[in-house]
Design a protein that fits this description.
- The chain is mainly α.
- The chain is built from 15 helices and no strands.
- One of its GO terms (biological process) is terpenoid biosynthetic process.
- Pfam families: SQS_PSY (PF00494).
- This is Squalene/phytoene synthase.
Amino acid sequence: MSVDHYENFPVASVLCPPALRPAITAIYGFARTADDLADEGDATPAQRAADLAAYREDLRCVARGHAPSPRWATVFGPLAPVFRRHHLPLPLLEALLDAFEQDLHQSRYADRAELLRYCERSANPVGRLLLHLYGVRDDDSLTRSDEICSALQLINFWQDCSRDHPRGRIYLPRADWARFQVSEDMLLAGRDTPETRALIADAVAWARAMMLDGAPLALRLPGRTGWELRLVVQGGLRILDKIEATGFATLAARPKIGVWDAPGLLWRAARMRPAKLRQSTP
């Protein structure tokens, strides 16, 4: 499992209930294609905005039971029957598009509250869509899902500093820069200093606490669903461990999970207990 883009959850993995794999794959394809429209290639911002608007209109056609344009047939072809069969909540899918559109014009965040509002659109809908497929609707589960998904989004940000900052995109909140006496120029230039490492260490602690708050959901969900979520949680925590092992130097290098991490993730997933979650350490 990779903590990157929408690989923040294992897509249609062997642990996913087989009957739900087509639905999860269709949702993933929708989200990933929209993400690529907003972020990949050499299109102008205006063209990206136009493409996302057309993509949204095709989504609304599917929601109305009408035929979308043929432009993204490989996305909306599989999504249309999934949308009807599982009564997918349209606002959750549109929230993802809102986040991608926001990426076109916003590359700085004033404080943690503003960044979390972005995560509410960019990450949390994915977890809520999965819970919808699993038939989980209670408020506590939705809240814990949001905590897991926002934590995964933050982990992705802290993991990707060496990629995002050279492109002019900084997700570390401005208010946190000030606390650690870090300037925008230092972050854009990728200057690995004691101050920037302290800033990232604090951000890592924030993401870890949020993940641990949400983690009990993985112990509550039954069968394959619960085991899959355990691995999602442990994959996110493992990335944080790797960031810490570098001395919080993600301005200089990007840690990632590899196949050699799989046995450890399985072991940690199997040992998850409610009383141990808050005691988890790297």
